[in-house]
Design brief:
Distance between the termini: 44 Å
CATH class: Mainly Alpha
Radius of gyration: 21 Å
Number of domains: 1
Order of helices and strands: HHHHHHHHHHHHHHH
CATH superfamily: MFS general substrate transporter like domains
Mean pLDDT: 81
Oligomer: single chain
CATH topology: Growth Hormone, Chain: A
Number of helices: 15
CATH architecture: Up-down Bundle
Shape: globular
Length: about 400
């Protein structure tokens, strides 16, 4: 079984299958929205704004969503969110079918997607541990889930590039709408035995504060989340500017943009495959450091790339580093957080990743508009190196304190 060992679990196999189909449609929609917005506005700032609206709810709602998910049935929450996301994709398809190219409604539907995703992602991540009976297979399940996400990122944009240039944006949205059927059918077929934790009678905001206090008392978990937040603010937003590289810097079309997204998917897919092959007790902190350096150096190289081919290679390497970094942090949090605090811990991770990212996208979109895309992307790469350096220093300092405490006892 090796790399696919977690697929022996029935519920996880269904989850994996549904995600594999649906995520292709999701990536097609992401590419179609980005290309549509840039075609309509030709504004890097508005491109960043749409990303901001689709992700900003995670910053505000993720901690609340974590407490909510810990108190309620994760499976039911996931079923409801998937249905709403299906309707959101359908609304986009209908709007573009009738040639309503209105940036306000595109922004409004992106905001709806962001609101629903705040609960969807938290519920999905928290449910993962219940889909795999043998907990030793959990890191493999997380890595495989990441690999299917990035395989879809490879296939989806490539298909989107072809469909955008032949059939139009509305077909991308329609395919995404239909792809949600696979997820819903697979969820219905699951045989889950969720352990019911007694619901807290305290105010949910007090419950949320407990999650913060838990992280405060767990510096290893907190440092991972802080690094994720810093990368989301200053490094990862380079992905938002890929349409600018495709259209303006390399004078391409929707197909060229599809190549950039597919290159990112290709690199991330290999990163996920690497993560899936790791043994149980692998040093995840080391992987976080090395992958962070790869991400930062590749982003700098992308900014100064003189040719399209080199830019695509750098995009792939950056995505590989990003995939390994985020997957390592995710796996570490899921395998080290207490069961009763897992939802809240993951909600802070989601807030740091998907919640801070829109602020970074908006900020980098604005700076790219003011100073030029290549200059800003080079800055993002240099910032990434500083972030990794700070993380390494913090880990070394924390280990020294821990070793001194052990020697004193």
């Amino acid at each position: 079984m090796g790399i696919f060992r977690s697929l022996k679990h029935y519920n996880y196999r269904l989850f994996f299958t549904g995600q594999a189909i649906s995520l292709v449609g999701t990536w097609m929609q992401r590419v179609a929205v980005s290309w549509l917005v840039y075609q309509i506005t030709e504004s890097a700032f508005l491109l960043g704004l749409i990303t901001f609206l689709s992700l900003i709810p995670s910053l505000v709602l993720a901690p609340y969503a974590g407490s909510y998910v810990d108190r309620h049935n994760k499976y039911k929450i996931l079923m409801i969110t998937q249905i709403i996301l299906m309707l959101q994709a359908g609304a986009l398809a209908v709007m573009i079918w009738f040639k309503v190219y209105d940036i306000f409604w595109i922004a409004a539907l992106s905001l709806v997607q962001g609101l629903v995703n705040s609960f969807d992602v938290t519920a999905r991540q928290s449910l993962m541990v219940n889909l795999v009976e043998d907990k030793e297979d959990l890191p493999n399940a997380i890595a495989l889930n990441s690999s299917v996400f990035n395989a879809a990122r490879l296939v989806g944009p490539a298909l989107a590039g072809v469909i955008l240039s032949t059939l139009g944006e509305d077909m991308c949205f329609l395919i995404n709408f239909l792809s949600f059927i696979a997820v819903i059918v697979c969820l219905v077929m699951m045989k889950l035995k969720l352990q019911e934790h007694p619901k807290s009678r305290e105010n949910i905001w007090i419950d949320l504060r407990k999650g913060y206090d838990y992280l405060k008392s767990s510096p290893d978990l907190a440092s991972m989340i802080i690094m994720m937040a810093a990368s989301s603010l200053l490094v990862i937003p380079f992905t938002t500017l890929l349409p600018v590289f495709a259209k303006d810097i390399f004078n391409g079309t929707a197909t060229t943009f599809g190549w950039f997204e597919s290159a990112a998917g290709f690199g991330a897919f290999f990163g996920a495959i690497y993560m899936a092959t790791l043994k149980v007790n692998q040093n995840l902190q080391k992987i976080v450091m090395v992958s962070g350096i790869l991400l930062a150096v590749s982003v700098v190289a992308l900014a100064i790339s003189p040719s399209l081919i080199l830019a695509l290679i750098c995009t792939g390497l950056a995505a590989l580093g990003l995939m390994a970094q985020t997957s390592s942090i995710n796996t570490y949090l899921q395998t080290h957080a207490d069961d009763l605090m897992r939802g809240r811990t993951l909600s802070y991770y989601i807030m740091a990743y998907q919640g801070v990212l829109p602020i970074g996208s908006l900020l980098m979109g604005y700076l790219a508009h003011q100073f030029g895309t290549q200059t800003v992307v080079a800055f993002e790469g240099l910032a990434g190196l500083l972030i990794v350096g700070a993380f390494i220093y913090n880990e070394k300092h924390r280990n020294e304190i821990k070793n001194n405490a052990v020697s004193l006892t």
